[in-house]
Amino acid sequence: MTIESLPGSSGYIDAGIDKKITYFSNTYVLGLTVVAGIGGLLFGYDTGVISGALLYIRDEFEAVDQSSLLQETIVSMALVGAMIGAAAGGWINDAYGRKRATLLADVVFALGSFVMAGAPDPYVLILGRFLVGLGVGVASVTAPMYIAEAAPSEIRGSLVSTNVLMITGGQFLSYLVNLAFTQVRGTWRWMLGVAAVPAIIQFVLMLFLPESPRWLYMKKSKSEAIVVMSKIYDPFRLEEELDQLSTALEEEKQRNNAISYMDVFRVKEIRLAFFAGAGLQAFQQFTGINTVMYYSPTIVQMAGFQSNQLALLLSLIVALMNAAGTVVGIHLIDHSGRRKLALSSLSGIIFSLILLSVAFFLSSSGYANVGWIAVLGLTLYIAFFAPGMGPVPWTVNSEIYPESYRGTCSGMSATVNWISNLIVAQSFLSVADAVGTGSTFLILAGIAVAAFVFVYVFVPETKGLTFDEVERIWKERAWGSDLGSGLLEKGVDS
User: How many CB atoms lie within 10 A of CB 102?
Assistant: First the structure.
């Protein structure tokens, strides 16, 4: 039975009564999730808006129009900034907390947006793109971590996946904004500058929200942490959560030293966790999501439609499908589980990439009327990727690391994601020119097969487990003890 909205009830679990926690059970937690998720919106908007803005930037700056290097730099400088922001974001989160990290990301992002909007030349624009990237990088680490630490374990996956919905929603919004400002004077300046608005809104709202309760308990004030947690859990559950935090705090005190990046590789259980988390982030990019999105207009043209307006409409439809698929993922991730969802998603991705490869092979061989195969491959790819490999890597990385390592490891794994993103963006066209587009999609299908094997072998199920239970899984895997026995079964079957 789901928790009903009763007078005087805030949606907490009633002690002693078996009531199911659902996504909408606690409006307080949902509010924290939505506000933190604005960071995901900034993430998605920035990655989507530049494709439309670049067309008008080329019209205004002749140097950009005549230089592919400048165009690539304008696009990729945000990725460079995001890599640095993600790497630094882990340390900032651990040292100063999730709330301050979010506020810092908003300030840097808004500053970058203003710099871009007022850029007198391409080089100032590049500086603005770098600043925006820094903000996005910090936000990509902070938002899922903040949400995960405020969420009950039963719905942690769906709440963290809300951040991914905000990312895909931001991409969709960017296409709408691009369309809205096409006839406005200073087109690209509005497209890039308006991104400051959600950053400012998040900054103001975050001032009124609490710090992550887990960070408060471990780093600052137990009493403040208890106040926040009492709004999330009923008294009986609150006592259990506090006992777990107390144990985690004692273990951290026993370590009695600061965590360094090298410690991630020295400690076996942390190394295994990071390998699983970072591997998921890398495979998310190397299975080709950005390349498939990039080739959407080409696929439509193969189907026999040549209109540029249709290409823009397709971008909107693909982005909407991506967002809709993420909504499905929010439902499935806490019902089916992370591991099963990732494996199902990758199975569909493999089939879709093979279809795309076949379509391009047939097209290059002179076959007519094969565009529908490519359109079907594109549609299936988005349908399979969005619910699974879209949210799963971010969700898993928000929950598989111990408290003292969470910021550092989350930052490092997010950096892996951004580096992989940059590698794919910079190499795809070169590979396609060298071996052909059909062969390139076949290579991506092979990578997706490797990703399937990776998830099957190295990624445990974490559905419904507390942070402490997840930590015990890694200890069991590392040292062969029975610490984690039963927990793997609980994660898979609960």
Answer: 27
- At residue 294, the pLDDT reads 64
Please state the pTM of the whole predicted model. 0.80
Model confidence at 493, pLDDT cuts 50, 70, 90, reads very low
Task: Return the pLDDT at 67.
Answer: 83
271 Cβ contact partners less than 8 Å away, ≥ 6 residues apart: 264, 265
Mean pLDDT of 439-454: 95
Query: Residue range 335-356: average pLDDT?
Result: 95
Query: Is residue 307 over pLDDT 70?
Result: no
- Banded pLDDT at 487 (limits 50, 70, 90): very low
Q: Which residues pair with 2 in a beta bridge?
A: 20
List b or e across 384-414, with b for residues whose CB sees 16 or more CB atoms inside 10 angstroms: bbbbbbbbbbbbbbbbbbbbbbbbbbbbbbb
For residue 13, give every residue at least 6 positions away whose Cβ sits within 8 Å of its Cβ, in sequence order, or none: 3, 19, 21, 233, 234, 236, 237
As a whole number of angstroms, the distance between CA 27 and CA 396 comes to 24
